[in-house]
Amino acid sequence: MRHPIARALARPLILAAVAAAIPLASAAPVAADSIVVGGFPVDVSKAPWTVALSSRDRFGGTRAGQFCGGVAVAPTTVLTAAHCMGEDVLGAPPEQVSDFRVIAGRTDLLSDQGAEIAIREVWVNPGYDPQSNAGDFAVLTLAEPLPQDAVIAMSAAGDPAYEPGTRATVYGWGDVTGGGDYVRRLRAAYVHVMSDARCGEAYPGGGDGTFLADSMLCAGEERGGRDACQGDSGGPLVARGKLVGLVSWGSGCGRAGQPGVYTRVSEVMRTLDWDGRNAADGRHGTA
Ligand code: 4AZ
Questions:
Q1: Which residues belong to the signal peptide in this entry (predicted)?
Q2: pTM for the full model?
Q3: Which atom of ligand 1 is nearest to the CA of 11?
């Protein structure tokens, strides 16, 4: 079952359970090796625009408070999932989470690599629909800029990166098994962009959710095995060197015939009136 509300409710509970069960974490070596799901370790220097969202007050310090992913698209602009900003996740409106930070340039959450940057403004897409999960994105404005080489360009509508079959990579610190096994170190997984027709078949509506091609994009493997999972939400899906998706939802993780569903970045650009000229300093249609 992948209704957004249930997922948002489940996340903090699962993270709390993991925090309480640290000694057991090492009791699942098979799960930890097997796989973001089906992935491999990656150094953040290979994907410097991948950031972690953190609140130690809310999620505890065992994994530096990481609860979602994000992606820098300009020095002071980070995109994430709207559902990561829900009160059911954060316990309060995001502006009231006083230790809410973006962690940038850090592979191992428990290292002191990179920087923890305060958030000056949170803008949740007013078109986000928590029932359907359409429009699942939010814009964070950072209090201090990231280096220009730590940002990634967004892929506009019509870019060949959206063509079905294109190889893409998803990044995150989320669950590696679907069983609540959150990791300390950044991981990546190779997946393929799927056709809207195929995705509509996978999620025709009902219990597993509805694929809406205007605002969503699917990626995965026909046989399953490689996917984003809980805790990866808001993080980047990259194809042909550009951002095409933000981790949003899916039925389980890595299941055959149940690809990961991503926020379609061309739709984010359209909503923000983002045309590349404003990319350098993060000005967008909402400023
Ligand atoms: C989640 O709950 C979630 N397999 C994110 C991505 C996927 C499933 C669930 C895709 O945040």
A1: 1-27
A2: 0.87
A3: 2
